[in-house]
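FORM 12-B: Structure-to-Sequence Request
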């Protein structure tokens, strides 16, 4: 039998595909972590309840396929496979990589219970606490057949070193495509829109139909619209006044101001967070700083990420811009759970930086996120 309840020793044979594993009340997610480590897989479940299901007894399998069927037996459902990524749960029959990067409303409705949709992933903290977090993230963002890449992580229960792995090593490359009517700082996504999404229902297992607004005011839906390839440009002729943005306490619970300035081949970003009742660690405090980095200085990039992780661990929301090539940011939410959103936007390296981008004629379609590294 694939699933055995009789007692036996725990065995991990280095030169054989079989394994045996004893579980004394571990969650199904923990067991999946063992199987995933044994066979080099990233395993996810459609609902937190399924992932938290307790498992008692000894599990054994003779091969990777057998191990996945064992997990399916325990989860009470079938699984869907995409390379080394395995998904169990409701909606798996329609879970798929979408080569065009677009999801129709019907596809979104069918897949709304899945943990991964078209490259978007919400990973629950209690599912990754015992895993190599950076490896899970790298596997998600490296799939070339899935084009839209945005990672939203519930960090409740995640170890500090796992969070550091995410910020120091994982990269999410995103590009914008489609008609943009205003030239104002196209590459920066609106902080308020995504934060509002996180504040509404952080227990949701999927990010769908999420409206994201550019600071210039244009908006788009992640699943809608016709893809039109358009290089990313951050042009130095924009003045400082064109780029300044701020949000007050009525919108965020704290005052957050960003002042981006272009200085030759550098982007300088000033940020300031004032007294806040929304995040307890920021009460009666203020935080401000200046960061700059020249293109190509990757060591500084790593240093900035580590610096960001330190500030995140203290409950300080952080926004970082790294020259004209990349944009990274993270925030920590209020109450008992912590939410970290990590995103990086890479400028199209093949574009002629000295020439203004051709602006496609508007056909009323929405912007769409797609992978910049095809």
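FORM 12-B RESPONSE
SEQUENCE OUT:
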């Amino acid at each position: 039998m694939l699933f055995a309840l009789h007692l036996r020793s725990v065995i991990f044979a280095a030169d054989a595909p079989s394994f045996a594993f004893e579980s004394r009340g571990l969650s199904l997610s923990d067991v999946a972590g063992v199987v995933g480590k044994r066979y080099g897989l990233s395993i996810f479940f459609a609902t937190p309840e399924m992932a938290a299901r307790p498992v008692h007894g000894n599990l054994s399998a003779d091969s990777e396929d057998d191990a996945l069927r064992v997990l399916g037996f325990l989860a009470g459902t079938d699984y869907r496979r995409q390379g080394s990524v395995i998904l169990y749960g409701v909606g798996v029959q329609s879970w798929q990589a979408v080569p065009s990067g677009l999801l129709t409303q019907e596809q979104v409705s069918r897949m709304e219970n899945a943990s991964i949709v078209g490259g978007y992933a919400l990973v629950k903290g209690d599912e990754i606490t015992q895993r190599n977090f950076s490896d899970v993230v790298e596997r998600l963002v490296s799939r070339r057949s899935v084009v839209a890449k945005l990672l939203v992580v519930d960090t409740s229960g995640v170890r500090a070193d796992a969070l550091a792995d995410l910020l120091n090593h994982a990269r999410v490359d995103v590009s914008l495509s489609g008609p943009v009517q205003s030239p104002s700082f196209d590459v920066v996504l609106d902080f308020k829109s995504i934060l509002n999404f996180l504040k509404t229902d952080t227990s949701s297992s999927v990010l769908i139909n999420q409206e994201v607004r550019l600071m210039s005011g244009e908006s788009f839906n992640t699943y809608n619209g016709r893809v039109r390839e358009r290089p990313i440009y951050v042009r130095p002729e924009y003045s400082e006044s064109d780029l300044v943005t701020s949000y007050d306490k009525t919108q965020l619970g704290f005052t957050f101001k960003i002042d981006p300035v272009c200085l030759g081949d550098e982007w300088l970003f000033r940020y300031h967070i004032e007294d806040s009742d929304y995040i307890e660690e920021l009460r009666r405090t203020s935080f401000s700083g200046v960061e700059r980095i020249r293109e190509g200085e990757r060591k500084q990039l790593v240093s900035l990420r580590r610096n960001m992780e330190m500030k995140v661990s203290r409950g300080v929301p952080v926004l970082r811009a790294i020259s004209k090539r990349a944009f990274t940011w993270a925030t920590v939410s209020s109450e008992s759970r912590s939410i970290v959103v990590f995103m990086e936007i890479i400028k199209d390296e093949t574009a002629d930086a000295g020439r203004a981008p051709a602006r496609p004629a508007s056909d009323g379609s929405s912007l769409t996120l797609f992978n910049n590294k095809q």
